[in-house]
Every structure is written in structure tokens, then in C-alpha cells.
Amino acid sequence: MRILVVNDIPYALGNTMKTLKDAGQKEIVIAYNASEALDRLFSVEGIELVITTDFNMHGGMNGIELVKEIKRSGFKMPVWLLTSYSDVDEKLAQDFGIEKVFSQSKLEGLQNAVKTKDT
Question: For residue 70, what pLDDT is reported?
């Protein structure tokens, strides 16, 4: 499965990539902001999942605006949010088009979900 990971903080991006690699993922595409993420979606074929790790990204759009733009552009892949905020309302996130919410402090939940999705 090819996964697009979006994060503007290099160490957080590295942690997410390590988590995904530990879950057996080999095809990881990265973007450092929302604009790059959209560029990747239009230029890299076969992206099946987007994981955004920030609501407050630098360089233009925030995470919610990115999710809205992904959906508006006609992409159908799920979008998951990995966040350091423990109080994210999952129902509200779903209203914005985010399928699943994971906590940075519980990365094993992300690992398990990726392993399950890939099978």
C-alpha cells in the first residue's frame, strides 16, 4: 500500500515514518505541507491512504483545509489524523472527512490499523 504522510515538523515526520516501516510499510510518500501533499496526490499514482499529522501546518493551508481540498479534488482514499492533541473530537474530525484519529502517544494503534488495512 502506498501511503502519503504529511507533516511540517521533521522529527514528527520521522517518528511517523518509523512507525509505518515497523508496521511493514515500504511505500511511503512524504510532504512537508498541504501544498506539497496535493502536488504528490496529483503526481504520484497509487496513493491509497493519507496520514496528516498536524492541524496547524505552515505554508498555507491547515490540516482541515487540506482534507477538504483532497475531498473536493475528487480523491476517494481515506485520510487519517495523527495528532498530539488528546482532546480531538473524533465525530467533528469525521465531519471534516477524517476517517480515523490517532494519538501521537499511542502509535501502536496506528501500526495496528495500517497492518489491518493492508490485508
Answer: 93
Within 8 A by CB and 6+ apart from 78, the residues are 49, 50, 99, 100
Phi, then psi, of 51 in degrees rounded to 5: -115, 115
Q: State percent of the chain over pLDDT 70.
A: 81
Cell of 65: 483545509
Task: Pull the grid cell for residue 20.
Answer: 509505518
Given this model, what pLDDT does residue 30 score? 95
- Taking the C-alpha atoms of residue 107 and residue 10, their distance in angstroms, rounded to an integer, is 17
Could you tell me the CATH number of the domain that includes residue 57?
3.40.50.2300
More confidently predicted of 25 and 119: 25
3-state secondary structure of 76: coil
Any idea what DSSP says for residue 118? Answer: T
Q: Total structural domains in the chain?
A: 1
Asked if the model's pLDDT at residue 47 lies above 80, the reply is yes
User: Closest by alpha carbon to 116, among 92, 80, 76?
Assistant: 80
Task: State which residues form the domain around 55.
Answer: 2-117
